[in-house]
Structure to design on (128 residues):
């Protein structure tokens, strides 16, 4: 039964992010990794979505009480934070957060643009 729930959650997230050009998903380490092209930017694990953060985006997560990715009791990945439920359920907002995550994942990228400009850019790059 758990596999169906996992598959449903993965399918839901992929549908929510379907306008993100170059989106890919691969099974890994008991979860799934999200990619935009070759850039790894998110983790789907145990019914939760975690996105890559940096010094400009992690405060948004922390203000909302989100926690970093913790796959086990000994390991915490402080650069990946759980996405809040209200963001996960809002396609446009999730797309903005995913774009920020892809920027954070690219080494040497400029600081994240405003979320409004990110959405506009994503729509311009959306699949036809």
């Amino acid at each position: 039964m758990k596999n169906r729930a996992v598959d449903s959650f993965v399918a839901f997230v992929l549908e929510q992010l379907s306008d993100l050009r170059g989106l890919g998903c691969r099974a890994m380490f008991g979860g799934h990794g999200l990619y935009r092209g070759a850039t790894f930017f998110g983790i789907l694990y145990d019914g939760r979505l975690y996105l890559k953060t940096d010094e400009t985006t992690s405060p948004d997560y922390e203000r909302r009480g989100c926690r970093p990715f913790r796959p086990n009791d000994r390991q915490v990945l402080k650069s990946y934070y759980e996405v809040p439920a209200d963001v996960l359920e809002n396609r446009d907002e999730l797309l903005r957060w995913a774009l920020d995550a892809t920027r954070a994942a690219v080494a040497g990228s400029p600081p994240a643009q405003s979320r409004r400009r990110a959405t506009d850019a994503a729509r311009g790059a959306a699949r036809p």
